[in-house]
Design goal:
Number of strands: 10
Number of domains: 3
Strand order of the largest sheet: 2-3-6-1-7
CATH topology of the largest domain: Rossmann fold
Order of helices and strands: HHHEHEHEHHEEEHEHHHHEHHEEHH
Distance between the termini: 82 Å
Shape: elongated
Structural class: alpha/beta
Radius of gyration: 26 Å
Length: about 475
């Protein structure tokens, strides 16, 4: 039957019978993605895929154990974030689009029904200075509420009775900059940006486009009734390297894609790899970047002088062009700061020889090895071999982190050549930002911890 806006409204069960249930899910998700694409300019198709799957998963929330947050973030306003939330409002069940809802209002809403929370301009809340109870309550709600059964206790009523409010719900957040790390780690991150002159989208008007959006919402709801329980019970196979928290938050979306069939299982996994890489680029610390670059610098060497390491770091060479070591906090990386950064990973300088040279202070590969294995898993999974314990590989039954010898055997070192089929070209994440501010307040403001006459060569802020 016609809805009066130029398209036919259909019952999802009738469509499933007409096209065959095996292909209906893929066709439905294609329709949803096409609708979203009409009005939203995403950075790539992977982001569009994630938004589509997230909208579908919101209809199956009662069967899922985990619901990922969808974080729509941009460096500048007018990047299309709010428009995505407006479209999701049409597609998701019991949607609640808000800019400044209080935690109490959200708690009470969730107590009464299962809502889909769409929170715009979230940066206005988390960028506030000082302690803010509203800020902390919302952070707790977003953090805890991604897992089924989560509750937050609050005192209510004149007698201050303790009430545990359920907070499990699907949440999409839009804002400028980044969110707190605890929320980001639970989120599928989409980096929105302003449309280029050649990127065109249709003009959106709620009264004109709402009927089509609600038709798709109703079809998603009907399809969810058919496949939701199976999706909730599924243990989908995730792409290689997707483990821990990323695996946890992507499982529901991959399960939805598998239920839809067609091209969606492969499309969803491609999106998972791409968007997890976006998250990795954000979360990598300066220390992890240093370990990655040291791995490149060492090459085949068993030991390098400190002066050699600093020269190679600051000159760049084989490192990425954005390597920060030549201009770190306004000056090149120095010996004291290098030692301070590596000390966190239990790596200390000692007297070494470079290929028969004279003994000088430097670092040995064997002392860096343990940190490389622990903090650069993408580099070691195909290179650290334990043939005597094949069941201990990552992701297998009863898997665990293999023991790493203090002094690795020669055949286990990464510089040894391996067949082409055994090599993996790793993704080494970039450090997105090196703060312009000075380091610890305990360091001397003149030398930044390098040591000078002002601080009596100790590298610390003078007591006066």
């Amino acid at each position: 039957m016609s809805d009066g806006n130029g398209f036919e409204r259909h019952n999802a069960d009738d469509l499933a019978q007409e096209f065959g249930f095996a292909t209906y899910g893929a066709s439905l998700l294609d329709d949803v993605r096409g609708f979203v694409r009409r009005f939203c300019a995403f950075p790539d198709d992977h982001a569009l895929t994630a938004a589509t799957l997230w909208a579908a998963h919101a209809h199956m929330i009662e069967w899922f154990h985990i619901t990922p947050r969808l974080a729509l973030l941009s460096p500048e306003p007018a990047s299309g974030k709010s428009r995505v939330l407006e479209i999701l409002e049409l597609l998701t069940p019991e949607s609640m689009l808000t800019l400044n809802a209080s935690p109490a209002a959200i708690f009470r809403s969730l107590e009464n029904r299962q809502i889909t929370l769409l929170f715009d301009e979230i940066d206005a809340i988390f960028n506030k200075r000082g302690k803010d109870d509203t800020h902390e309550d919302l952070r707790a709600l977003f953090n805890a509420g991604y897992k089924r059964g989560a509750t937050i206790p609050r005192c209510v009523g004149p007698h201050h009775e303790v009430t545990s409010f359920p907070v499990f719900c699907a949440v999409a957040l839009a804002g400028l900059g980044d969110l707190p790390d605890t929320i980001m780690s639970r989120s599928i991150i989409i980096r929105m940006r302003r449309r280029a002159p050649g990127e065109k989208v249709e003009e959106f008007r709620t009264r004109r486009n709402q009927p089509r959006g609600h038709d798709l919402r109703d079809r998603l709801a009907s399809w969810a009734e058919q496949v939701g329980a199976a999706c909730g019970d599924a243990w989908p196979t995730l792409p290689p390297g997707i483990v821990d928290r990323p695996a946890e938050i992507w499982e529901p979306l991959i399960a939805v894609a598998d239920a839809a069939g067609g091209h969606w299982p492969a499309t969803a996994r491609d999106a998972c790899i791409s968007l997890c890489r976006v998250a990795d680029d954000r979360t990598v610390s300066l220390g992890i970047r240093l370990l990655s670059d040291l791995r490149i610098i060492f090459g085949d060497a068993d030991a390098l002088y400190t002066e050699t390491i600093l020269r190679k770091l600051t000159e760049g060479g084989n490192l990425d062009p954005d390597a920060p070591w030549a201009d770190l906090y306004g000056k090149p990386l120095g010996e004291r700061r290098l030692a301070s950064m590596l000390k966190k990973y239990a790596i200390k300088a000692e007297e070494v020889r470079e290929r028969g040279g004279r003994p000088l202070q430097g670092y040995r590969r064997e002392h860096l090895w343990d940190a490389w294995v622990r903090y650069l898993p993408s580099l070691d999974t195909a290179q650290v071999e334990h043939p005597e314990h094949p069941e201990q590989t990552n992701g297998g039954a009863g898997s665990s982190v293999p023991d790493v010898p203090a002094v690795p055997e020669r055949e286990k070192r990464p510089e040894q050549k391996k067949p082409a089929t055994a090599r993996v070209v790793p993704h080494v994440p970039h450090v997105p930002h090196v703060p312009a501010a000075r380091g610890s307040e305990r360091q001397c403001p003149r030398c930044d911890g390098e040591g000078c006459a002002h601080c009596r060569n100790a590298g610390r802020r003078p007591s006066h």
